[in-house]
Structures are given as C-alpha cells and as structure tokens.
Design a protein that fits this description.
Layout: H1 8-14, E1 18-22, E2 28-31, H2 33-39, H3 43-46, H4 63-78, E3 82-88, E4 91-92, E5 100-101, E6 104-113, E7 119-128, H5 130-146, E8 158-163, E9 172-181, E10 185-196, H6 197-217, H7 221-232, E11 242-249, E12 254-260, E13 266-268, E14 274-276, E15 281-282, E16 295-298, E17 304-308, H8 320-333, H9 339-350, E18 360-366
Parallel strand pairs: 12-15
Antiparallel strand pairs: 1-2, 1-7, 3-6, 4-5, 6-7, 8-18, 9-10, 10-11, 11-12, 12-16, 13-14, 13-17, 17-18
Length: 367
C-alpha cells in the first residue's frame, strides 16, 4: 500500500500555533492562519514585510521588537535555535481602539536549512502563554494563603522560604509550619506531599492543619505523627507523604524530633558544627499502622534549627549525602547571619542558578 502524499503547505497553514517563515534578510516569506490572525493581516499584507516594521510601537522604546530581532539574528549568525521566553506584550482590543489587554508570550526561532546545507529560512513561532501565567499566579496565591506568614515564634526569630520548581508552573505539596506551645516551647514542621498541582496542594493543606491540631494535644512529635498517619490513610493522595516535626523546649534546651521518611533536620551550633537529626526516622505516612519513634538532641543558646524539603538537597543521579554535605557547608559558612539572611544565603548556595527541579520549603529558627 502506497504511503499517502503529505501536503506540507496545508499542514503549515493548519498548525494551531502562530508560525511565520522569515528569510535570512528578516523579510516575511509566509505565515500560517494562526499567525495571520494574531497580527491582524492578510497573507498578501504579511509576505514581503520587513520584520523590524512588523510590531506596532504602542510604547516608545518597546523592548520586545529588539529582543525579537536579536533572536532572529542569533539564528542567522549561529545556525542554532534561539528562544525568547516569557515576554509581556499587550494587545489592543479590536473592538475598542485604545484599550489594551495584558498578554504574555514565548517566542522560538528555528533554523531551516536548504538541500545545500545553507540557512534558507527561519521558522518564527509565537506562543501565547497568558492563561498559563494567570493560572500559575492564582495557584501560587492559593499556596501562599495555605502557608503561615513569616513571623517570630515566641521570642525567637525565624525565617521561612518557599520556592516552586523551575520546571513547574503550578503549586505542589511542600509545606512548613511553626506554632507556639505553652511555656517557652514551639513546634517546627515541614512536609512534602507526592505530586504537583492543586490536588497535591489540597492534600497538603489538610495534612498541615491536621498536624497543627495533633501537635497541640499530643505528648511529643512521635505521637503527633501517629495521629497524622491515621488521618492520612483516609485521604486520597496522602500516601507516601514525608514529614519531619520538632518540639523545641528552651527550659530544657532540648529538641525532640521525629521523621516520617523525611530528610533530617539540621542543627547548627555556634561553633559551626552541623549535626543532622537522623536518629528517629520511620516510613512515610500511610505506610502501615505503627508506633513511631522520637529522639532527643540538646542545643546551646544561639544555635540554629533548619528544616527543609528534599528540593533543597536532592539532585538527579547524585547521592543524598552530597546534598547534605552542601547544606552543612553553607550553614557553617554563614552561621553568623540572622535567620532571614541565612535563609537567602542557603538558597543561593544550594539551588541551581536556573532553578530547582523540585519545590523547596525551608524553615530556619535561631534558638
């Protein structure tokens, strides 16, 4: 059976994304139907048009045109793909002249080579990501509303940070919590629900609230996690959630801690020594009914307690010990900083410049 002949011109015209073909001299050679609708031009009006004349100057000094031209010239100079990510360029309402709507775009320029191997055309793709950006803003606002605002705990300074993954435009299940107990005592916890999106965030909100309630009445962190584990087994999506919780008591200068499969809290002493509190680790929530264990550590005034989620330390194809060593080194080098500055320094040291691949929550308390 003969293979059907493909009409690539028809395919190009029907592409759902806005795509134009540009010559190396930066002149439009063609545009599909989506691109023509975007620009409000007919095919005849577009073809032969010089790209630098294409974007209307609604705002003097409009930088988007300069970025578009720089991207196209990178392709002509290098023969390699070029992207211009997340640019704001507002669009005028066709029914209300003078009314502009906020829009966000990703631009991609791809080299197209001829049979002789020379650059023949540039494929210029314009993607409207406004709805995605708005969805992310709503989701992150929801996540922030579900997490407690930064504040001192009792009389002790604390700092909190939440960083979404660079690869995800959505919320996730990482959380932190700080709360006062009677006397000079506090509870500090972090947790991580498996997955991303509003479903994970919803589970996170339920578990965080449940742990807060359990910590108010439970006699220690192990008992609080036992109660949370029973509750987690009633919630879809809560299985394999990891949690670390610490009860800090200044009257006895002790930290009682327990972990459900979570990376160990770090205790930074004033001399720069870092100890990981790893003597009370059980399986994640929902594994099976079990009595959980807890352990005790002592601290001196001025020490620092650090809780975090795995996005801070874990890297693909790397042993977790390497990440823990990076964290210990960063804490030791910045031990003189107050919690807010220390939190910023740790994130700068440990998160990749182009963003982490997993969400990160971080809590730092000066003891």
């Amino acid at each position: 059976m003969a293979e059907p002949e493909v009409d690539y011109a028809a395919v190009f015209r029907a592409l759902p994304g806005a795509v134009a073909l540009v010559t190396p001299q930066l002149v439009y050679a063609d545009g599909n139907e989506a691109f023509l609708r975007l620009r409000g031009l007919t095919h005849e009006q577009l073809v032969g048009r010089f790209v630098p004349e294409d974007l209307p100057d609604k705002d003097p000094g409009e930088p988007l045109l300069l970025r578009v031209l720089a991207s196209l010239r990178r392709v002509t100079d290098t023969g390699e793909l070029s992207t211009v990510e997340l640019q704001r360029y507002d669009v005028q309402d066709p029914d209300q002249p003078g009314v502009w709507h906020e829009r966000y775009w990703n631009l991609t320029d791809v080299p197209v080579f001829g049979p002789d191997g020379r650059l023949a055309l540039l494929m210029h793709r314009v993607e409207d990501v406004t709805d995605l950006i708005r969805a992310r803003e709503v989701a992150l606002t929801l996540q922030e509303a579900m997490l407690p605002a930064p504040r001192p705990v009792g009389r002790h300074p604390a700092a909190v940070r939440y960083r979404p993954a660079a690869e995800a435009l959505n919320v996730a299940g990482d959380w932190y919590d700080l709360m006062d107990l009677p006397g000079d005592r506090i509870v500090v916890s972090v947790g991580d629900v498996v997955g991303h999106g509003l479903a994970a965030a919803s589970v996170m909100g339920q578990l965080r609230s449940a742990l807060t309630s359990a910590s108010l009445v439970a006699k220690g962190p192990a008992r609080a996690l036992e109660v949370l584990g029973r509750y987690a087994r009633t919630i879809d999506g809560a299985e394999n959630t990891t949690v670390a919780t610490t009860f800090v008591d200044w009257d006895t200068h002790t930290i009682t801690y327990s972990s459900a499969g979570h990376p160990p809290p770090a205790l930074l002493q004033r001399d720069g020594t870092v100890a990981f509190l790893d003597q009370a680790t059980d399986p994640p929530l929902g594994a099976w009914p079990l009595p959980r264990i807890q352990a005790l550590a002592t601290f001196c005034d001025g020490a620092v307690l650090v809780l975090y989620t795995d996005g801070l330390i874990e890297r693909r194809r790397e042993d977790i010990d390497a990440g823990l060593a990076r964290l210990a080194d960063s804490l030791a080098r910045h031990r003189a900083e107050e919690p807010e500055s220390l939190a910023d320094a740790v994130l700068a040291d440990l998160l990749p410049p182009d963003g982490a691949t997993d969400d990160t929550a971080l809590v730092i308390v000066r003891l």
